[in-house]
Amino acid sequence: MSGPLRVGVAGLGTVGGGVLQLLNGNGALITHRCGREIKVTAVSARNRDRDRGIALEGIAWHDNALDLASDPNVDVVVELIGGADGIAAELVEAALKAGKSVVTGNKALIARHGPRLAALAETQGVALRFEAAVAGGIPIVKALSEGLAGNSLSRIYGILNGTCNYILTEMEYTGRAFEDVLAEAQQLGYAEADPSFDVDGIDTAHKLAILASVAFGTPLDFESIFVEGIRHITPLDIEFAAELGYRIKLIGIATHGEKGLLQRVHPCLVAADKAIAAVNGVFNAVVAEGDFVGQTVYQGRGAGAGPTASAVAADLVDIAQGHTHAVLSPPMAGSKTKSLTMDGNEGRYYVRLSVDDQPGVIAEIAAALRDESVSMEELLQRPNGSGQPVSFVMTTHEVAEAKMMRALARIARLPFIAEKPEVIRIETF
Ligand SMILES: NC(=O)c1ccc[n+]([C@@H]2O[C@H](COP(=O)([O-])OP(=O)(O)OC[C@H]3O[C@@H](n4cnc5c(N)ncnc54)[C@H](OP(=O)(O)O)[C@@H]3O)[C@@H](O)[C@H]2O)c1
After folding, report:
1. pLDDT for 81-122, tens place per residue?
2. For the domain bounded by 140-302, which CATH number is listed?
3. Interhelix angle for 87-97 vs 107-124, to 10°?
4. pLDDT by residue (tens digit) across 272-306?
5. I need a surface site. Which of 80, 150, 276, 308 has the fewest CB within 10 A?
6. For this structure, is 100 an active site residue?
7. Superfamily assignment of 5-133 in CATH?
8. Which ligand 1 atom sits closest to the C-alpha of 136?
9. 79 C-alpha vs ligand 1 centroid, how far in Å?
10. Domain-by-domain residue ranges, the chain?
11. Cα angle at 107 between 276 and 156, to 5 degrees?
12. In terms of CATH architecture, what is 346-427?
């Protein structure tokens, strides 16, 4: 192929810095692999004077990131600023309109504006790539859009947020409370000062929306995802779960079938012997199930300079080799996808109740369950100090979510219930 692929990088933080380091360190290898050099010709960040520990000599600096879109020495813009709107969105749009391919690690942007930007890229005959936006270093977008392209996929699920997985793993290993471990994660730089995007499940939902659209070819639909975070998980639940043979993980799950598409993000009890239950700390994992291939499992680091730069580099290599096909393709002609809600989802449940110790308690709880056809599978009870409420835990057989929630609402109103019931869904992957 012709001369070097000239790259403009917007954002020189964790990921942007990592990309420059990777292209420097592995430049010769990459040139050999794609038959041409990938060369950073221009960059932009907020603070020009910051020492970033990366060589910027000979590279043009733009105070205004938008200038990368009109720089004649830039073929591809790499957006690593972040945020669903604002400068990141403006830059991506301007670059595509200027006929430049774009690589981004920005899941919020793709989850919110992906379809519009993908359509613009297609009209312009350029590429929009976002491997780094989902599961960091795991090449899952490529696996879904190319490696598994011969399959009809029915389900995709995964641990997509390293911060939550780190917190849940630490809570399990140390018995410490959520707030405690979160504070430590913030000190270590694993969690943001405002952790809500991570711990409330929104980041996982952004990634799930992207994965589902790539996997199923359905319209990207972030708004209809059911999202529940991990703030309510306690060490006691982790302990009870272990006693029952489970571990607790925050999982994004998308299923696609004749009835439609269900996308949900919530903590799950997962059988301890399943592959996904063994994914610890900041690691991510994705499981994709196809009709011919069966189950495929991918695991790796979901964040950090190196893994994320690795994903950005893969997209650049693809573009350098001339591959500009759409990854977020428009839905197949005539295909309609109904978005399903949780209400009709059939599942199993873990419920922990804290009750005042008095006669007739079990009978009243059993009546509330019976009236909604909820059938109990296991029951564990833990005696507390005298006069203290008693904790007991039950697991259920499969039942529709709406029925389970109605039974729980009735149980929560019973006079001997000392605390709001804790409910966690059990997933039998
Ligand atoms: N960190 C990860 O592990 C990870 C993993 C996967 C995906 N991502 C995604 O990658 C993107 C970047 O994340 P990051 O962790 O690298 O963020 P970061 O460390 O906060 O870096 C952001 C960069 O953007 C620059 N910036 C901010 N506003 C700007 C503006 N108006 N014009 C030009 N530059 C501007 C900052 O400049 P200064 O340095 O001068 O302040 C900084 O260099 C985000 O979309 C994120 O979601 C990150």
Report:
1. 999 999 999 999 999 999 999 999 999 999 999 999 999 999
2. 3.30.360.10
3. 10
4. 999 999 999 999 999 999 999 999 999 999 999 99
5. 150
6. no
7. NAD(P)-binding Rossmann-like Domain (3.40.50.720)
8. 6
9. 9
10. 5-133, 140-302, 346-427
11. 35
12. 2-Layer Sandwich (3.30)
